[in-house]
């Protein structure tokens, strides 16, 4: 129980201490007009109140990762209850804060435009298309998972999976085509209430159970096989993506950067909502640890099934159903803005106007087609869905490493010292090591098709390559910015 409560306390203190330090180093300026105040367009650039932006950002970023991801990730042991808050404070929240501020300063730019400016066109040319594909993988996952939860939990005897898929997909299309205040801005307060109710309910029930039976929050003996097959580094940081750090968030922050009325709202909106997601991750990680100790049969079940068992065990059928509803909301409210972000990014990359309805529809059509194909393929077998999830997992963290490195370059270009840029550069290098070592270690292992080297490399070799790539990436960022500064100085009269 001390690991659980201590982790939540660390997250809260981190917001008021390290979060304030990062804010001071980044330097939000309340006198500078934000994108929606400078160039409102009635579609995506619309001033919204701070409380609504907070909810939109939280629901945009809090997908199934901080729930399904931690249900699997806690199998690394209760050390995850330490890594989640530390990673969230020093990496994930900084990542989201930088992504939001870079977009705000660049007129609400999406991630491809940011990466092009700070990491160069050659890198961005590949990265931008990878990012759009990742968003479509994300949308597919965030249709699949809530549809599966509805099918297995809400209506277990109705065989309604594909009906749920269709309904969610139609909602996503509507949410991405209509102005942000017409759909997302109106329904998110209701969704936010469900999320808060579900999370608080499971936290209170878990605390009561934990104080009565402290051993349920000890490491489960059944974790040994999982830990033997999956080393803590790098696998934990790919498995528990959204609870620690997630590149997907950098694709969502521009949505709120375009509706934020004052830069002083940025710490609460970007850094603070990631801290809130860290709290959600802690709650579900601890509750998963408890359910594995209470019934080892859960170790053989998939994430959605374990989620349902957690909710039912701690809260009963009725309140458990409300909590599962909150998780469905988490997935749906990340998938809708995922599709919206892919439309905006594609429009920005191809210079397609997104103000007029016909061009928005035309931009959406190929995206809808790709998602439909991915939905069909991923449901051919459990193996297909697992492959989809794994591509999404390591691709997501590739985005986080790229965003942090772009953030380091942005700080240098803004005139900050190299020492200040370390708040982004160090976690960016760390996540680069995670991604590269994970790819090279998992390649072809146990029949997995998503790697680069058949059979995979030894872990030490994969980590060594990851360290070398991370060091090269950091040198590239620093040298590129020094060259940029020299060019800029030479152009001064």
What does this entry look like structurally?
- By secondary structure, the protein is mainly alpha-helical.
- The protein has a single domain, classed as Up-down Bundle (Amino acid/polyamine transporter I).
- It has 19 helices and no strands.
- Helix 1 runs antiparallel to helix 14 and helix 4 runs antiparallel to helix 13.
- The chain starts with a helix and ends with a helix.
Structural class of the helix and strand makeup? mainly alpha
Helix content: over 70%
Low-confidence stretches: 447-451
The radius of gyration over CA amounts to 22 Å
CATH architecture: Up-down Bundle
Largest sheet: none
Mean pLDDT: 84
CATH class group: Mainly Alpha
Q: Span from first to last CA? A: 64 Å
Percentage of residues in DSSP E strands: under 5%
Shape: globular
The fold-level CATH name is Amino acid/polyamine transporter I
Total domain count: 1
Number of helices: 19
Helix and strand string, N-terminal first?
HHHHHHHHHHHHHHHHHHH
The tally of strands reads 0
From the structure above, extract its key features.
76% helix; mainly alpha; 19 helices; 493 residues; 0% strand; Amino acid/polyamine transporter I
Secondary-structure topology with pairs:
Elements: H1 2-16, H2 18-26, H3 35-38, H4 50-61, H5 65-73, H6 80-105, H7 111-119, H8 121-154, H9 161-177, H10 184-212, H11 224-229, H12 232-239, H13 248-257, H14 266-294, H15 303-350, H16 357-378, H17 382-413, H18 418-442, H19 459-491
Explain briefly what this protein structure is.
This protein has 493 residues and is an all-alpha fold.
């Amino acid at each position: 129980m001390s690991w659980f409560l201590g982790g939540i306390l660390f997250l809260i203190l981190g917001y008021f201490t390290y979060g304030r330090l990062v804010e001071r180093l980044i330097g939000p300026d309340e006198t500078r007009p934000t994108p929606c105040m400078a160039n409102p367009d009635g579609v995506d650039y619309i001033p919204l109140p701070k409380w609504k932006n907070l909810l939109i950002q939280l629901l945009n970023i809090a997908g199934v990762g901080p729930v399904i991801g931690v249900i699997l990730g806690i199998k690394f042991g209760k050390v995850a209850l330490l890594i989640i808050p530390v990673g969230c404070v020093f990496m994930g929240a900084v990542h989201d804060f930088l992504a939001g501020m870079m977009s705000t300063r660049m007129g609400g730019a999406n991630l491809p435009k940011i990466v092009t400016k700070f990491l160069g066109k050659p890198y961005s040319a590949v990265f931008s298309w990878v990012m759009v594909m990742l968003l479509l993988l994300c949308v597919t996952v965030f249709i699949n998972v809530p549809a599966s939860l509805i099918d297995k939990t809400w209506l277990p005897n109705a065989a309604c999976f594909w009906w749920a898929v269709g309904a969610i997909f139609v909602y996503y299309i509507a949410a991405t085509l209509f102005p942000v205040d017409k759909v997302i801005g109106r329904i998110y307060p209701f969704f936010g209430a469900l999320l808060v109710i579900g999370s608080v309910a499971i936290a209170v029930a878990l605390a009561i159970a934990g104080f009565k039976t402290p051993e349920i929050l000890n490491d489960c003996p059944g974790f040994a096989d999982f830990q033997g097959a999956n080393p803590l580094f790098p696998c934990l940081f790919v498995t528990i993506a959204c609870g620690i750090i997630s590149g997907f968030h950098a694709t969502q922050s521009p949505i709120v950067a375009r509706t934020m009325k004052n830069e002083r709202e940025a710490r609460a909106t970007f850094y603070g909502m990631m801290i809130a997601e860290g709290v959600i991750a802690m709650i579900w990680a601890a509750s998963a640890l408890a359910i594995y100790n209470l019934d080892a049969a859960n170790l053989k079940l998939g994430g959605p099934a374990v989620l349902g068992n957690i909710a039912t065990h701690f809260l009963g059928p009725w309140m458990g159903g409300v909590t599962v509803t909150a998780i469905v909301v988490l997935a749906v409210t990340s998938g809708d803005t995922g599709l919206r972000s892919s439309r905006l990014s594609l429009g920005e990359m191809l210079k397609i106007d997104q103000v007029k309805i016909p061009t928005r529809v035309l931009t959406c059509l190929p995206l809808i087609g790709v998602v439909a194909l991915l939905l069909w393929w991923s449901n051919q077998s459990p193996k297909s869905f697992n492959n989809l999830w794994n591509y999404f997992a390591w691709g997501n963290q590739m985005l986080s490493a790229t965003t942090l490195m772009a953030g380091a370059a942005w700080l240098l270009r803004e005139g900050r010292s190299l020492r200040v840029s370390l708040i982004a550069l160090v976690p960016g290098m760390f996540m680069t090591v995670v991604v590269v070592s994970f790819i090279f270690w998992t390649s072809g292992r146990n029949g997995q098709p998503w790697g680069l080297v058949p059979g995979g490399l030894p872990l030490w070799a994969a980590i060594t390559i990851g360290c070398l790539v991370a060091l090269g990436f950091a040198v590239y960022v620093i040298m590129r910015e020094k060259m940029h500064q020299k060019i800029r100085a030479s152009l001064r009269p």
